[in-house]
Fold:
Amino acid sequence: MIIVSDTSPINNLAAINHLHLLNQLYGTVFIPEAVYRELTDPSFPVAGATEVQTFDWIQTRAVSDRTLVEALSNELDIGEAEAIALAVEIQADQVLIDERRGRLVANRLNLRYTGILGILVEAKSQGLIAEVKPLLDTLSNEAGFWVAESLYVRVLRLVNEVNLP
Structure:
């Protein structure tokens, strides 16, 4: 399975110490150079910086189609634009992206996508985590990941965790 990730899934999973889920679910994860730069910018340290530099299952790839990157940059930030362009270029099975605009563009280009919530749901369905709710709460409370209340409830219903304390 060929997977390309934007910055957010890596950063947020690293922030809650669950970046390993990407490796367990997908094996190798490719990131474009712009995502690597966003995660490793020394003037703005973020969770995931060390991991993208040291984990061999996270591989950085250059995007060849700069014309597509430029076109996508009119709508998206450079990390999202390169992630989507790389996914198109290497015919990825899926792109990991959380931002709504990025998902709309990915959909327009017929790319399959999921975000951190879908990753957590899949991890639970494969028995890699016992519960989604504690991780969702940690994402919201500690990592600053915003989830609409309606989506939060929908995800918990999906994984049968609605009545958990």
The chain has a mean pLDDT of 93. The radius of gyration is 15 Å. Residues 5 and 118 are 13 Å apart (CA to CA). Residues 78-89 form the longest helix (12 residues).
